[in-house]
Amino acid sequence: MAWEEWEQLKAEAVQRGSTRMQLNQNPADQGGDGTQGDLVAGHADLESVGKAAHDLFEGFTAYSGHARVASVAAAGGLKAEGYALGAALEHVAERWSEQTKTLLDACAHISNHLRYTKNQHTADDSYIAGTVSSIATLDEGFDDRKGH
């Protein structure tokens, strides 16, 4: 915006007598589900990601446990028979266990973070609505002091 344009807008505002603060806002009726506020964290796609992460956590916990137990048992059997492959399989089973924990932690983190985000956005939206709605009360107080 050029300086001249800014000066013109200020002059027009003075002519209109608009010296009070004005908040931009969305039109009251925009359709949708009737909820108030701009922050929406309940989208079906986010919910499906959270559910998929939770389902993966639940399913993978069981299946990875079976694989680990079977691998450790096989490794023990091979080692007992003197096969070097037993130690290698044991090493693979240990790495499998470590990687499984990492994946399960990531799934839990995704699911928990989405749940936290949804709750936090709801709380933030409520706080913002309360703060913005109190501006009218504050404005009335200033009007009373001016004698309007």
- Stretches where pLDDT falls below 50 for ≥5 residues? none
Query: What share of residues are in beta strands?
Result: under 5%
* H/E element sequence: HHH
- Compute the average pLDDT: 79
End-to-end Cα distance, whole Å, is 36 Å
Q: Pairing-aware structural class of the strands and helices?
A: mainly alpha
Give the total of domains: 1
| Biggest β-sheet description | none
Q: Number of helical runs? A: 3
Could you tell me the number of beta strands? 0
Alpha-carbon Rg, integer: 31 Å
Protein name: AG1 protein
Organism: Streptomyces longwoodensis
Region (Disordered): 15-36
Biased composition (Polar residues): 16-28
Structure description:
- By secondary structure, the protein is mainly alpha-helical.
- Helix content is 76%, strand content 0%.
- It is built from 3 helices and no strands.
- α2 (44-80) packs antiparallel against α3.
- The chain starts with a helix and ends with a helix.
- The model has no long low-confidence stretch (mean pLDDT 79).
Strands, helices and their partners?
Blueprint: H1 3-16, H2 44-80, H3 85-146
What are the main properties of this structure?
148 residues; mainly alpha; 3 helices; 0% strand; rod-shaped; AG1 protein
Please provide a brief summary of the model.
The chain has 148 residues and is mostly helical.
